[in-house]
Each structure stands twice: as structure tokens, then as C-alpha cells.
Design a protein that fits this description.
It is built from 16 helices and nine strands. The protein is α/β, with parallel strands linked by helices. It has a five-stranded mixed beta sheet with strand order 3-2-1-4-5. A two-stranded antiparallel sheet has the order 6-7. A two-stranded antiparallel ribbon has the order 8-9. The chain starts with 12 loop residues before the first strand and ends with a strand.
Length: about 450
């Protein structure tokens, strides 16, 4: 029987199975070449010494939660070439920790593993702050919902009277309630003149059945919300400082006019995200309709200064998990579902696609509606997010400004397709059509 031979790509390779309580390190396939270590910093230093004693040069380790990060940094500082492997490449052979470590070492020795995308050191710092900012925004929205619940249980329908209870008018009214004011007329006087409700309607919504326990809960939620908003402002200042120092030598063109974006909302970044994006990539990404400053902030914090790690737009879209995962067997496509995932940038593109779908006009809006009519809104969001990611990739890599106008040949094909569809519809119902020369045909 003929044996199958495979060439060794990494002769001095190691495989590490990452765990929450211990790490298993395999420098070979024998029983005495797999060793268990702890998770403390001293244990990490023991791993470094053990690897150097076994002349290891390159390491493959699992991307397990956040447990890999501290060991990864120690190994990088020690001078090892470290490959962070996603769970999709290792989950098929999970049996025991020892066997997992052996399999990872074996596959890495043969060069069969691919690394996850890891940003540079500067981007990793900013990304951590931006993700922390996002979690604070999510937490603050939870406390707004709790305040609405307290007010509703006291029959104070501030959520009906104003669009945002944490707007200028809402904060003043809640502050007055917490100070002991209960007169609906007085509370209504704190509202801004731009409120659509009349003073009488507003006062009628502010009649309440005040309860001591609900007032206590309301005060706690309000104070925690204010504290979270202050921390978000502090984070914005810190993130802006990081980028100001990093991009101090990059100048903006004097005659450049960036796209106008609305900065409404209490959770919008309060620093010049559009300018930072232009300095990093040399193009105005905000020129795309539906792309907000939050989308740009997600892009610059998740990707960093360049998209060079992705050879083409297809690789970028695949990493975002916005491309169909076609499973083919026997020449037949068994499934074409888009892979599931919690990629932060993918979520930002999906949110932008949802905004595009709600707009009245635009090339991307037309595409969204066309996909929505064919396969539904959820598929349209994914397809538009994929197209948006492709456009942004080409803009950054080719240094081309966004051009919403379609080429004439593509526009002509679209118009011809519309005309052909209209003719088929008329023929289906036995009606007649007239061409541009006035000729009647069936």
C-alpha cells in the first residue's frame, strides 16, 4: 500500500490548547511532549522557558474567548512567531485537552492552519477603548428603559409627551420630579418650546401616582445614567487624544469639504471622526449615504490604518461573514447561508444597511429595495452590507472617492431590464404596449 507523504512546513512548531484554568502545551506527538501549565503570569513565564528549552520557533494557539490574550502577549514579547487559530479550524477534533494540543501542533507543523486577523498595537489599544465605549452606550440605554418603567408605573407618561425622555426637556422634568415637584403645570413649564404637545396635553401626561419605592428606583437609575454619560464623554476625549498623537504629522487638505452628517443623539461621538477617517485612508467614507460617524468609528477601531491584510474585496467580505458559505456536494449547492458571527464591524455595516433601506432614494437604496422584494428585508440587509463593505474596500485600497453615479452601460442595462419586465407583464394580461417610435405591439 502506497503511503501518503506530507512535507513539514514548520519543523519547530508548538500547539497550545487554551483553557480557563490551565493551558496544555504540545511540542510533539509523544506523551512526554505534552505538558499542562497554569494561567498565572508565573506560569506563562514557565511556558516561555519550556518552549525555549525545546527549541520552539513558531506557535499555534486557539482563540478561546479572551483567555488567550495574556499568554499571547507574553509569547510575542518573548520573540516567538504566534499564530492565533479560530475555533472553526479546530472544533472538528475536540475530545480531550491533550489530544487538542497534539492536533494543533500536528496541523501547524504541516502548515494547515490559518491565523485570525489581528490589528497592530495602536489599533488594538483604540479598539479596546471603542468597544468599552459601545458597552457603556448599551448600559446607558438599559437605564433609560428602567426609568421609563418607573415613570409608567407611577402613571407619569413622559414617554408619550416627549420623543426622548433623556433629551433636554425630559432631563429637566425628571430632575424636577426628583427634587420633589409634583404639580403637572409646573413640570410642563420645564419643556422646551419645540415640543409638539400643547402645555395642556403635556400637563395631562404628567399627572402621577407617586410611590416612595419607585421614586427611589428612579433616582438611582437617573444618577447612574448621568454617570455613564460622563464616562462616555471622558472616553471620547481619550480616544481623540490617541488619534491626535498618532496622526499629528498628517495634514488635511485646506480645500477639502467632508460630507455633512447629522450629529443628533446623546451617544454620538463628540470628536472629529470624519477627519480621522480621512487622515487614515485618504478618502471620505462619510460621503456614502447611510454611513454615519459611528460606522466610521467602528471601521477605524476594528481594522486600523490599512486593509492590506486582505488581498481583495472578496476576502474582506468573507472575513466579515457577509458572503454566502456555499456548501457543495456532488455538484449541487446544499446550502448558501451566510455564516453566523458577532464581528463588530459586520454589525456596524448591517446597521448602516438598515438605515440605507429606510432612505427615500439613492443607488444603494434601490439595490436594497430590489433585494427586499426578491428575498425579504433580512436578506436585503445582508446583501446591502456586503455591497457597502465592497465599496469601502475599493475606496480605501484604490484611493478613489465615492461615486454614486452608475456607469452608463450599467444604467442602460437596468433600464432595459425594467422595460423588458413591463412588456412581459403587459403580454401576460393580454394588454398592448407602445415603443419609443409609437409602434403598437402585443
Amino acid at each position: 500500500m502506497k503511503k501518503l507523504e506530507m512535507s513539514v512546513v514548520h519543523a519547530h512548531a508548538c500547539g497550545i490548547d487554551i483553557g480557563s484554568r490551565s493551558h496544555f502545551v504540545a511540542v510533539g506527538q509523544n506523551d512526554d511532549q505534552v505538558k499542562e501549565f497554569g494561567i498565572s503570569h508565573s506560569s506563562h513565564l514557565e511556558i516561555v522557558a519550556y518552549l525555549k528549552a525545546n527549541q520552539v520557533e513558531t506557535i499555534a494557539m486557539e482563540s478561546t474567548g479572551s483567555y488567550w490574550q495574556s499568554l499571547f502577549l507574553v509569547l510575542i514579547e518573548a520573540g516567538f512567531d504566534v499564530l492565533l487559530v479560530p475555533g472553526t479550524q479546530t472544533k472538528a477534533f475536540r475530545k480531550t485537552d491533550v489530544k487538542d494540543a497534539r492536533h494543533i501542533q500536528q496541523l501547524h507543523t504541516l502548515g494547515l492552519l490559518n491565523s485570525c486577523f489581528l490589528p497592530d498595537t495602536f489599533t488594538a489599544k483604540v479598539r479596546e477603548l471603542c468597544r468599552h465605549r459601545k458597552s457603556l452606550v448599551q448600559d446607558s440605554s438599559k437605564y433609560v428603559n428602567r426609568m421609563q418603567k418607573c415613570l409608567r408605573m407611577m402613571n407619569i407618561r413622559l414617554d408619550v409627551a416627549v420623543s426622548d425622555i433623556m433629551g433636554v426637556s425630559g432631563r429637566k422634568i425628571i430632575g424636577a420630579i426628583l427634587d420633589g415637584e409634583k404639580d403637572p403645570q409646573v413640570l410642563a413649564s420645564f419643556a422646551n418650546a419645540r415640543i409638539k404637545k400643547t402645555p395642556e396635553q403635556l400637563a395631562d401626561s404628567l399627572h402621577g401616582n407617586y410611590k416612595e419605592e419607585l421614586m427611589y428606583e428612579l433616582r438611582d437609575n437617573f444618577e447612574i445614567f448621568i454617570l455613564l454619560q460622563e464616562r462616555i464623554k471622558g472616553l471620547d476625549f481619550e480616544i481623540e487624544k490617541y488619534y491626535s498623537e498618532h496622526l499629528a504629522s498628517v495634514a488635511m487638505p485646506k480645500d477639502l469639504k467632508l460630507a455633512s452628517k447629522q450629529l443628533k443623539g446623546k451617544n454620538q461621538p463628540r470628536f472629529k471622526v470624519q477627519e480621522i477617517g480621512y487622515k487614515l485612508y485618504g478618502v471620505d467614507i462619510s460621503a456614502i449615504n447611510g454611513v454615519s460617524v459611528n460606522t466610521i468609528l467602528s471601521l477605524i477601531s476594528e481594522i486600523g490604518t490599512s486593509l492590506d491584510r486582505f488581498p481583495n474585496a472578496k476576502a474582506f467580505v468573507s472575513w466579515l461573514r457577509l458572503a454566502p458559505n456555499n456548501r457543495i456536494s456532488g455538484g449541487n449547492v446544499l446550502s448558501g447561508r451566510t455564516p453566523k458571527g458577532k464581528n463588530a464591524l459586520s454589525i456596524a455595516f448591517r446597521d448602516a444597511a438598515n438605515v440605507i433601506g429606510n432612505q427615500k432614494e439613492g443607488p444603494l437604496t434601490s439595490f436594497f429595495r430590489k433585494m427586499g422584494l426578491k428575498k425579504g428585508r433580512l436578506v436585503a440587509i445582508t446583501a446591502t452590507a456586503r455591497k457597502l463593505a465592497t465599496i469601502i474596500y475599493n475606496m480605501i485600497m484604490k484611493k478613489q472617492p465615492y461615486n454614486p453615479e452608475l456607469p452608463k452601460n450599467i444604467q442602460d442595462k437596468i433600464e432595459q431590464k425594467k422595460l423588458s419586465h413591463a412588456i412581459k407583464t403587459l403580454q401576460k394580461y393580454q394588454l398592448y404596449a407602445v415603443d419609443d417610435q409609437g409602434v403598437i405591439f402585443s
